[in-house]
Amino acid sequence: MMNNASAAAPQVYGSDQNLVAMVPRINIHAFCDNQQSAETMQMAAGDRRMAKAHTTIQLGGIMAAVQVYQSQATPNVLLVESHGSRDVILSELAELAQVCQPDSKVIVIGHLNDVVLYRELIRQGVSEYLVAPLHQIQIIETIAGLFQNPKAAPLGKVLAFVGAKGGVGSSTIAHNAAWLMSKRYATETVITDLDLAFGTAGLNFNQDVSNGIIDALGQPDRLDATLIERLLTKLGDKLSLLSGPGGVDREISIEAHAIETILHAMRGSVPCIVVDVPNMWAPWIKYTLMHADQVVITATPELASLRNTKNLIDMLKAARPNDPPPKLILNQVGVPKRPEIPAADFGKAVGVDVSCIIPYDAQTFGTAQSNGQMLLEVSPKSKAAEALTGFVQILAGTDKPAKKAGRMSLPLLDKLSMLRKK
Ligand SMILES: Nc1ncnc2c1ncn2[C@@H]1O[C@H](COP(=O)(O)OP(=O)(O)OP(=O)(O)O)[C@@H](O)[C@H]1O
Ligand SMILES: [Mg+2]
Prior knowledge:
The protein is α/β, with parallel strands linked by helices. It contains 17 helices and 13 strands. It has an eight-stranded mixed beta sheet, sandwiched between helices. Helix 3 links the parallel strand 3 and strand 4 (about 105-110). The termini are far apart. Bound molecules: adenosine-5'-triphosphate and magnesium ion. Adenosine-5'-triphosphate binds near residues 168, 171, 172, 332 and 358.
């Protein structure tokens, strides 16, 4: 955690690989000792991951904090900055200790890369020592880290797939990407189909589906990893689905609060959560996109798609300044005789490079759809399958697929029984 001399490779903050958990509903007070730190702190406080926390920032460093907490209770997390030497920091903190509640967690920001100081501070009960200058994500990561149960399951990554307009192929791409994550990268993946009335996940996987998502949305306060587990439909070894039945006989209104609980419960138990977000606009849709770790927009190369993509990207970039921008897929490219906007121009107009170009291929997509199969099962050598594999490689952050379970990995007992049969 500590940003000191022993930290090896520099981390790229705000990159795709940098997953940072939500900070819980806590009070945070920061006492910075210069304007620049206060501004970074301000940016951290404005981040979506800090939305539940209540943060106040002021100048004056450790001594100002000592002053304030003579008469005030210390918050859940107290960040104090000092430009001082080792001795100065230690003596100022000794004064702070006199006024600090034992259950408050203290993070010290210093300007000295000093391991001896770090050890001494940790010995004295300081939760973390960080060396300025800091990146806002580093601050959020450190605070979130104070509240994570080390025994908790790996933190899930939410990938939200949304179409720039209806019918562009967003759901098909989301399902294929999830399937690839589970097969090629052996990552436990759940598809959450939020298109309650018209969702196609069940059809695309040739599966009868349950009412899982409706039950989940109906009792958000009871949701936890165990309940989610019961509501899932198994689609494969490492792939499951949380979806509605696909029908219009029930009207269900979705609250952003219910989405928050579902995503939170899943994040705690599944490493990859692919969310199929329907092409419509409502507070809960905005919530889902705002709180995804990665948004993937699928667009077709024409004007209406371009306008909507630009609006979505502008909104998301402004609302999530410390997150990677949405990834952009151009789908159904090369429909005969149709005038199209070239990928480079499309990317330039919307301010995000196109990550993946998928050709129009009625035969492959049509066969996949009518067989209830994935593109790679129907036509692994097709350009569409290749493009999608390349894209999922970007999402997974590696081109190294997981090891295939072959005979060598059979449990020892099975191997022995095979030998005996010979
Ligand atoms: N590159 C492609 N070439 C040919 N057909 C495609 C391609 N991509 C998607 N399709 C087909 O387009 C149709 C719509 O796809 P899909 O349902 O995935 O789109 P969507 O964006 O999720 O639509 P909706 O707005 O209804 O949710 C499907 O029949 C699918 O097979
Ligand atoms: Mg869809």
